[in-house]
Each structure stands twice: as C-alpha cells, then as structure tokens.
Fold each of these.
Amino acid sequence: MILNVLKVFGLSSFAFFLGIVLTPILTHYFYKYKMWKGHSRSDETNPVSPDFRNIHQQRAAEELNTPRVGGILIWLSTLLVCFLAWLIFIIFPSDLTKKLNFLSKNQTWLPLFVLIASSLVGLVDDLIQIFGKMGNKFFSDADGFPGLPKKARITTVIIIGAIGAWWFFFKLGMTSIMVPFVGEIVLGWLFVPFFIITMLAVFSGGIIDGIDGLAGGIMASVFAAYAGIAFFQNQIDIATFCAVVAGGILAFLWFNIPPARFYMGETGILGLTTTITVVAFLTDAIVVLPIIAFPLFAASGSAIIQMISRKYFKKKVFKIAPIHHHFEAIGWPSYKVTMRFWVISIVFAIIGMVIALIG
C-alpha cells in the first residue's frame, strides 16, 4: 500500500515539477515563433453576436499575442514521466523500479496511445490556426477561419474512438457496462457504437476551454477523480497514469491562470477529452462520467439547447452559449466564473467517485 501511494502521488508530483521546469523552455519557442492565432473572432469584421463581442473584446488583444499550444506541456510531461519510469526500470531492474514503472499493456498502453495520437492531431489543428490563411478552401471552418473543418475533427474523433472500441471489444472482450446500484448491462456489439458516441460526447465538452484557467482546473479534478477510482479498484497503473496527467495539468494551470502565459489549444483539449473516455471505460465507471465531468456536459448541453431553441423557437435560452459565457454576459467577472466552475467540478467529481466506488 505504501509503495502504491508513493507511486501515484510521487510520480504525479514529479510530473508537476517537471512541467514547471519545461515551461520556460517551451514558452521560449512559443513566443519566438509567435504561435498564436492570426485572427480573432472578436474582430469587428466578424459577424458574431454583440454579447459575444462585448465579453471578448477585452481579451481580443491577448488572444492574438498569447500562444495557443500550451497543451503540449501536459502530454509531454506525461510522456516523459512514463518514459523515464520505464527507462529506469530497464536500466536498474529491481522490485522498486518495477513497481514505479506504470507502462503496462493491459492498463496504460491504450490511454497513453490515445493521449499522444489525439494531442498530435490537435497540434496539427493548432498549427493550421496559427499559420493558416483566412478562407483556405481545405483548412478553414464554416466562417472562413483557419483550422481543421468541424467535419474533419469529428471524423478524427470517430476514428480514434473506433480504434479504442476495437481494442475494448476484441482485445479485452468488453461487451457490457456497469451501472451503479443496478449491476452489469450487456450491450453486445452495441458496445462499439456506444463507445464512439461517448467519446464524441465528451469531446464536444471541449468547448469549455474559453476562459483562462477554466478547462485546466476542471480537467485536473476529472483526472484526479478517476485516479481515485482506479486506485481503490487496485488498478494502480491507471491510477498513476491519471495522477501523472493531473500533475501535468496543474503545471499547465500554474501558467494559465490570468494573465495566461499560454492557452491549452486543441492539442490539449482533444487529447484530454478522448483520453478520459478511455480511462472511464477501463475503470468500468463510464456511467458516472457525466457526473464527474459535469461542467463538460453542461457546456455542450447548453450549446445544443441554444441551437435547438434558436432553430425551432426563434429565441435564445442563454445570452451566449456555452453556459460559462452566459454568466460572463450577465455580468460575472471571468475569474468568478472560473473559480465557481472549479468548485462545482470538484464537488461533482467527488460525488461521481463515491457513487462509482459504493455502487
């Protein structure tokens, strides 16, 4: 037990301090190569709503001068800690170094692969947004802003989800989900589309990344909760992986609190949302994911509600969607939105973790 605690908390702390050390190196290159957006959606030429423009006008200058690839810090810290723990075991084999190595085929290969693969795809999207030109035929969104088109992003998530679903269904033989207080529900082949749809749903919650510090604090609590679930399930390698990711997120958050040194970008949010989906299935705690990651689902849910209401009822439910911008629009300072969402995130993460463990 003591070694397990040392492994989880020790390596998580190491990831945090490693991230703190890496930041000056990364930011040097981020700023040297001006890795920020060339266009802001708050530009006067952009036909966004007045409410949106009002709350973003003050951040427009910062958006055009702040690197948006800070998510590299999170997955790079995780990858380095994982590699170093494995390398030390290979070079200095012993019971202790074997224990500290958390790279295992049945627990961490898949989430690590998804984290790196998704983050690299997100990095490509970020680079297109940084260096791309307005109105590019192939690499622009519906409004003409540089970046991967929405269909391309969704297709990418579906592909990653299909790979994950194949691994769970054919390699791990998983065909059911555990529902707290109810028991196991067998899905059979429906497990595959269920997995993909779940990953898409969590990915859609990535729109929470809109205020300095908001996404980082929420994702840290989500990964910490699943680290706790995995630990009590005695899946120590998964617990360590989640704790290490949380450590990397906290290092990122240290520099993302206003005024932000950098933003998470797609390389951070895409990697984290797809990875937490995999972790939720590995811990058989997928049903409590909407509770643990409540702010993510609230953000995507509010955007869906707003879209349906405007299309069919010609009126808005929120001043701006997603919901965190609604609170800004009604007068909450951005730091108040961030802090209160952090509190809500921690509370729901604890509730979800408890339900998963006692259910």
Amino acid sequence: MECIRTAFGGMKGLIIFCFSVVALAGCFSTGDESAPGRMQPVKISFCQGGVITLLPLIAQSQGFFEKRGITSRMIMKQDGKLALQGLLLGECSFAICGEPPLVAGSFTRQDFVVLASINLSDNATKILARRDLGITTANDLKGKRIGVRKGTISHFFIDLYLKEKGISLQEVTLVFMEPALMPAALARGEIAAYSASDELLIKGNALLGERGVLLSEPGLCLNSINLVAKKEHVNAHPQSVRKVLDAILQAEEYYLRHPGPALDDVRKQKGISRAELEAALKGQTHSVRLQESLLLTLEDHARWMIDNKIVAGTVLPNFLKIIDPAPLKDLKPSVVTIIR
C-alpha cells in the first residue's frame, strides 16, 4: 500500500487512478447495453415488408436514430410474410409487417411481439390488371388468372374484393406465387392481374405503363403495419428498443410539421417519383399507436385463415401474448389503449 501511495501521490492519487481505469474501460465497451459509459453505437436493422412505411425511413434520413446512438439499416422484402420470416431467422432486429404474417405465425409460435402500429390504411392493397387483356372493371376478372401470395394481406384482400363484387372463387383462377415474380409474369401475360401493395404495384405499373389498370375498394380491407421484435431482443435490450420507438415518434412529429421535405426524403431513398409515392400513400395514416382495434383485426384474419385452411389450427390464439405495450406506454401513454 505504501508503494501505491508513493507512486500516485497518496490515497487521493489512488482514487483518481481508479476512476481513470473505469472511464477507460467504458471507451472499450463491447456493446453490452448494460455497460456504463458505452460509446459504441447500437446497430439495428429492419426487415421492411411491401408497404412503404414512412416513419422509419424518415427517422433514418433525418438522423433521429443516429442522434440516439443507433445506426440503422433497411432490408427490403417483397411482403410482410418475408419480413417476419427475416426477423425470426435472425436476419434483422425488427420486422415491419401487417397482420396476416403475425396471425399465421402465432398459431405455432409466440416468441415475437408487436411494439407499435406505425401505419394504417384501408386502401393499401389493390389489384393491378392488364387493360389490354380486356380488364377495366371487377367483372372483367371472371375467367382470368390472378397472382397472389397465399396467406398474406393480398390474399385476404382478393377474397374480400371478389365477394364484395359478387364474384365466386370458381369464376377466377388464383395463382399462388412469390411476390417478386408477379410484375414480370403480368407483363408476359402469364397472369392477367395480381393483388399486392405499394412496392409491387409501383414495379408493375413501371413495366406496364398505359396497359395497366388499378382496381381498388377503399374501406374494404383495414391494414395496420406494425413494428415487431423477438421477445428475447426486447428483454435483452430494453433501452435500445425504447430509443428506436422514440426516434420513430420524432419522425411522426417531423412528418406532421414538414410533409413536403419528408416525402422528398423518402422518394429519394426509394428511387421513385413524387407522383408514384403520393399515389401509393393515398389514404394512409402515418402515426405511432397501439390500440384495441388491432386485436379485433388480428382475430378477423385468424378466423379467415381457419375457414380457408391456411393454418392447421382451429382455435384463435391469445393475441395479447404477442403484443407488448410497455415500451411505447413508457414514452407516450396517450397512444396506447391495449391493456395487457
């Protein structure tokens, strides 16, 4: 002890030395969220489904993630089913997807949770058809081959749409196929139409030009886009999860104050025109919330999946087990109406 005191000027020097060691250790943190003085940024990634979801893109372009010590990366998927699959396979930290993948997954596993709904629309899913094949109205779909991804929002929508228009499933041929193949298959005439959302509709329209026609039915199919994470990630990294939500909440505020610049940011990120983006987003609401209505929508999709034998189960899952309102409620209680 005498040697240490001599070397560092007594007990005061020893204390200073100890604090220096602790501070230096923080500079070389391994990224453990619980470690004090952590300097390394938290790396996250989003598996994004087929609907263009503004708020995470705005948070990224405006530096709202970076401001909170987070570096983010968007991994684009053709639809929500692939986005959730990417999350469950460990490809990304968060998935951004609609209700059908969550419902289908919850029949066999419940190791993921919805943290917030960040987009709401009753007209995001539409049908892109070939005008030059004689399709201009719903009735013209009779006898035609229609591409669809089985068990997704596009499948749910086409089923509702045909019933709404008085067309039976026997009067059309549904062709179950991967979403990435649909635009080219439509352009080649292998199918006469397909059901899809933003990203695929934009790609198909670009291929068809004036030969294409969009069929839609606003109000028919309510679709929320949700931020989803694995339970183990939420439990292991509660602070970074809250920071992600906080950044997305700030993106919502920015969009409300500066819609023009926000849309320009997203347009540039997506490599599309302002007109294409505005057409895709028409009728959509971009806000962060977690409301009771989500449970009702999940149950509607579950009943549809059971009735159409898309899932093997016959009993509705308890969807409260795949919703975690706590992180968002800590940040903004007024937007959370789900009681778990």
Amino acid sequence: MDNLKQITLRGGFAKLFGQGSNFLVRVAYMITLARLLDPKDFGLVGMVTAVTGVYHLFTTAGLSTATIQRVDVTEQQLSNLFWVNILVGIILSLLCVVTAPVIAKFYNEPRLFWVTIATSVAFLLNGAGVQHSALLHRQLRFISIAGIEAVAQLLSFCFGIGMALAGFGYWALVAAAIVQPAANTIGVWLLAGWIPSAPRRGAGVRSMLRLGASVTLNGLVVYVAYSLDKVLLGRFWGADALGIYGRAYTLIEFPTHYLNGAIGGVTFSALSRLQEDHVRLKSYFLKGYSVVVSITLPITVFCALFAGEVILITLGPKWKEAAVIFRLLAPTILVFGMINPLYWFLMTVGLQRRSLNIAFFIAPWVTAAYLIGLPYGAEGVALAFSAAMTLFLVPCLVWCVYGTIISTEELFKTVSRPFLSAIAAGIVAYIFHAFTAQALNPAVMLLLGGGIMLAVYLCVLLFVLGQWDFYLDLVNGLLAPEPRSR
C-alpha cells in the first residue's frame, strides 16, 4: 500500500477531529447533567457499571482485533465470527439479568435491580456491530467510522438530557447508555454494506478465536484492576463518595479515552498492514507514538495545574470536592497515554502473551494501592492509584519493547522533546496561575492560562527543540492530493 501514509494521516486526522468534537459534546453533556442530576444519581449507575462493565469486555470477545490484525480474512470467517459475537451478546444479556439481584443485594440498594436489567439490552446491540465495525477498520474507512461515532454519541446525549429535563433522574444515564450502541450498530451496518451468511464448519477461525480469547482475557484483567477502586468506594463509602470520585475519574479519563480511540484504532489498523515490513512498521509506530505523547503531555500538565477551574466550569460548585481527586489523578493521563500505544504495537507483532503478563502484574499492583488508600476515602484511593501507575511507567515501557525492533533508547528519545517542552510550559503556567488565581474568574483563567501554556509548549517543541520539520512533514502528507488510480 504505497499510499498507506496518506491514508493513515487523513484517517488519524479525521478520527482525531471526530473524537475532539465528541469530547466537546461530551463535556457539554457532563456540564448539563451535572446540573440536572445529583452525585447520588451518578453513583447509583456507577455501582452497576463497575460490575457489568466486566461483561462489556466479552462483547467483542477480542474478535474485532483478530479480524483487523489478520493479513487475509475470508467472507466465511467474518460470518462465523459475527455469529460468535451474537451468541456472546445473548449470553451476556442473560448473565446481566441473572446477576441483577446479586448486584442489588451487594450494594444493599434495591433500585439497582431494574437498572441492571435495563442495561442488559446494550450487550446484544454491541455484539451485532462488532464485525461490521472491524470490517470498516480493515478497509481503513476512518472518516466513516468517526462520523458514525459522532452521530451515535449525539443521539445518546440528546436522549439523556431530554430524560433528565423530564425528571427521570438516574434513568437518563441508563437510557443514554442504551441509545449509543443501538445507533452505532445501525450505522456500521448501513455503511459496511455487508450481510453475514449462515455459519459453517471448516472456515479456519480457530486461530482467530485463540487471539480473541487472549485479547479478552487481557482486557478482563485490566478492567478488573481499574474498576475495583469504584467497587470498593461504592461498597464502603457509599454512592455520594463514588459519585464524586467517578465524575473526577471520568473527566481525567476523557483525554486517554479519546486519544486512544482516535489514534490507537488508526495506528493498529495501519500497523497490521505493515507487520511483515519491519522498517516501515518501526518508523510508523515511533512517529505515531511521538504524536500521542506530544498531545498527552500538555493535557496532563494543564489538568494538574488548573484542576479547580476545570471542575468548577464543567461540574459546578456542588462538585468542588472532586477538584482534589481530579488533580491527584492527573498523572495517569500521561501514564496511559504512554502505555496504551504499546499495547497496539504488541498486538501487531504477535506478543499478546507479553501484554497479558503485564496485565497480570498490574492487577495486584493497583489492587494493593487501592487497599492502602481506601481507609482515607476517595482522595486516598486516587493518590494511591496515581502513585502506583506512575511508579510502574518506566518498568512497563522497558518491558514492552524488550527484544523487539524498537529499543528503549529510541522510545525515550521519542518522548524526550515533548517532555522537556511540557516542563517549560508547566513552569510558566504555574507562575501565571499563582499570581492571577485570585484576580481572574475560572473561565478566563482556563482560557488565558491554557493559551499561554500552549504557546510556550509549541514554541519550545517546534522551534527550540527543532520539531518543526517533523510536524510540517505530517501536514504535507495530510494535504497531499489523492493518488490517481491506474
């Protein structure tokens, strides 16, 4: 694929733009619901999703990854995998119904029974769109994917806000969680234009199922590790504490979620087409990694410095307790921004076992941190989790690239310039915040402080540290005319 660079750049830009738009819409949605609902409403739904979120990991069964990663895939293999996903969706819906009374009893909250029953529908809806979405990724149709995701999210938010305005309370959150997968699945079906055939034996999907199982197990271990904090807080500190912690956690997770969704999916699809060309694979990954880290670092510094203003603007005065938690969790933006791209790299080069071993280490590591911080409430859990992930960052990076085509030195060299630029920008922004915090209102502070920080960051990165040519080459690739077909 001679034009893979151009397709990847344009697809990445489309996904990044789409995810950026989604981010703004989601922030507006959160700002609105934070004023229409109470922390307890979010806490109630958070109690359910902390448990049933485990089931969501099995919705794809890792088979979307298997479909994208495979060099060649037949029509019958796609069809067989589609029916496997449908079967998994049915099983998960039934499992959700069966465990509803257990969840309600565990939290000693009867309202959770019907919330759990209602969310069971989402599993079947998600399962029906897995292979169609994977097919679009194989075809590198990232602009179409971004459009589908944007429309689905917008519809979901409209339903949620409408129900909140009508006084349905926490049911507004439940409705939004069901509408989004329904709209997304309808969208990928319409755009993929593929109708699965009946399942047949001998299609050769066994190796794909094994890869899917490995990916699913990896996701399960990681999810349990990163969700146990919410289960523990909900069980021992109640819905209010979980609601405040959960909103701060969700805000912190936004940059990681959207960057991974925008760049991660594009990178994995592109790298999978290059898995037999090690020179281009290495070059593409390091360039993509540099872009991700260059975006992640200033966001991390911004969130840490302006935590109080961010919470006040997005959630409102009644959520001011979330500001400390938000600031404590800020370092995890950088940690996940640097770790997540390496997961896609390991999947591409066939090192799923290594990724799984890393997940098995992370789980007890962060669990121990939660238990240490739990007696001190939400703030203690946030501090313990953030510290544990920060301490694990460098060992994790070394572990990921050990023995691969990418050396540790190359990886650290890639992040060194953005890191130094972020330090310089952070110092300037900190001084500005310290001298003007009492004089400026939160909105002005965010605009001026963020603008000054971004200006310093870009000046240092592009001109002082010489990254202008690198980003100019990316822009030229993005703006280059489409190659003519022969």
Amino acid sequence: MNAKAAAAWSASCLVIVLVTSNPAYKCAVLAAAFTTLAATAGLGRMHRLLVGVALIAGFDVLLNFVSAHLGQTVLFAVPDSIPGVGGPYTVEALAFGASSGITIPAAILAAAPFSLLLQPHDVMDALPPVLARTGTTIAASMNLVPAVVASFTEVSEAQRMRGWRPRGPRSWAEVVVPVVLTSVESSIQLAESMEARGFGLPARTHFRGANLGPTSLLVIVASLAAAAGFAISQALGWAEAWYPYPSLMWPAVDLRALTGCSLLFVPAILWRRRG
C-alpha cells in the first residue's frame, strides 16, 4: 500500500464528511471507511478502534440530546427546576445528535490507515521533501504511545513477579516511575541516534521511496474525483444541506452526489488485506 494513495483517500473522506451536514453522505463515507479497513486490516485489528469510536459517537448523541432542547416533536420533558437537564427532550435533538455522531467515527476511521496499515517511514514517504522534519516528528510520535504501553506492560509484569500488588494510587508509583525513566532514556537514545545520522544538517541522504503503481494511481484518482465531485455537487446545489429543526424531515439524497461518495469504496476493492 502506498502512503500517498492512503493520504489522498483519507483526505477525500475527511473533506466530504466535514463539509456536509447531510447524514446520508456522512453514512456513505463511514461505510466506505469501515469497508476499506475491514478489507485491508481485518475486523480483529479494528476491535479496539471500533469500541472507541462507538463510545465517542454514543456520548456525542447523548450530549446533544440532553443539552439541545429544541424541536417540535417532544418525547418527554424534565422540569425546568432541575439545572442542566431540565427542559423538553425532542426527536429533532436526538436526530441532530445522531448526525453529528456519524461525523466523528467517519473521520477517525478515515485517518485510521495511518496507524493500522502504514509504518512510520511510510508516513514520512507520503510527505513532500520540504516537510521531511515534520515527517520525522510524526513518525517518532506514532511510535511513542505503543512504546510507552509496551514499557508499562513489561514493568508491571516484572513488579508483579517481585511480589508487587496494587494497593491504591500511591502503590502505582512503583510502576509509573520506572516507565517514565525508561521513556526518558529511550527518548535520549532516539535523539542521539538522530544526531549521529545527521538529522538537521543541510546535506541529507535520501532513500528510494515506494513508486506509485497502477493500483495506487487509481486510488488517488478515484479519491480526488470523489472530493471534487462532491464539491461540485454542493456548489450546484445537488448535495443539499440538512437541518432537523424546527421539524424533523428526511435528508434529501441526490444520486450524483452519492455517486461521488461511492468512489471512496475503490480502495476496498484494490487494496489487499495485510496480516
């Protein structure tokens, strides 16, 4: 999988899902992102990610339902004397929360290939030469969280073998302190390694990046066509916006705009599953 193709596809998904308020097109992007990840990474590797985005989406729906007391279709009402939650609870607020809740999972799944399918050096390869240092920083940061998690697991297991047992917040210092010291030491080693390899000097060596094959080019073309087609649909009024207030209505769906979104399914067909 070429990093530039993955970046083009992710960017197109994000553009569409962030510029439209119509849940139909957001669902199309969400379906494309989920299908692509399922076909490439597999559902097993997506388990924690799916749980996380489901919790975030559910919280977003609940927050809007509780805080937005607007709309004509009232499900029930809480006395206004109760601070924070008092007021009418409407179908329109629930629908708007559900529409907003689609945006976050779609955006997260659209960006997920960078962590699930690509290595840090692949991400650096996707950036232009002028952003080489930025790519190095991104690559190092992508390795930070997995390294800290692995260090925490190793230290906690070693401490348990020595008879340590969690006895409250203070007892966790016996695990946290070694993890922090190990992370600092690893950071120093990384900085020394980068300095030894001449990071930051004007003269830089280069490695041969991955070439864009026909599959990657087709993904890039389809992704750019999807974003451009949807932008044109919005400009011409085909992809109508959706707003549930004051009375809930079904979102209008235009086949031309939906066809543009369908191009985001191309990677699910062309990219092969890893692992």
